[in-house]
Amino acid sequence: xxxxxxxxxxxxxxxxxxxxxxxxxxxxxxxxxxxxxxxxxxxxxxxxxxxxxxxxxxxxxxxxxxxxxxxxxxxxxxxxxxxxxxxxxxxxxxxxxxxxxxxxxxxxxxxxxxxxxxxxxxxxxxxxxxxxxxxxxxxxxxxxxxxxxxxxxxxxxxxxxxxxxxxxxxxxxxxxxxxxxxxxxxxxxxxxxxxxxxxxxxxxxxxxxxxxxxxxxxxxxxxxxxxxx
Length: 229
Hints:
Strand order of the largest sheet: 7-6-5-8-9-10
CATH class of the largest domain: Alpha Beta
Oligomer: single chain
Strand content: 25-35%
Distance between the termini: 37 Å
Helix content: 10-25%
Number of domains: 2
Number of strands: 10
Shape: globular
Largest sheet: 6 strands, mixed
């Protein structure tokens, strides 16, 4: 955290940090394979966009990449699959903010955990709720993740593995990782491994979402235009 390797049970965050008190923080979750982050620059650019909208300071990419490598190494994650989370908070500042705060580093936290091998088939639950595509933070990944957790927990209660979320005009948002969660470096497959299958549910209906040859399709004869890719 903030350039120092600290055991998880010794990490301290100010109760006045806006990331903790009101969820004013940006984050990215990145897949790691054998001690290296897959698609680091793409994740960094998305983090940079989210932080830019929120006026949060972003360290240079090489600083973040070095921190990620150190955390992976310290946790013995040099082989196999891992999940890395990078969080940026504005720190202890006024709710109003100012032009100066975006140039002042707040809290920078990197965590990494081992990920067990995922199954080739997952069940997806269509969320009954809508997400606001006209929100001021639309397109940003922020720590204000309550809506997403409501979707995820409801999906688990229904026996599904993940939730599919849509905005007010019916476009999929958020958990797109569900549809390409089997992607691996060097596989040449843009969205998922050949043969990966998901099942998408709604009350009384379901669709099979298949990843074949880098393309995805949703099979349901009663749902016009139901495809992802």
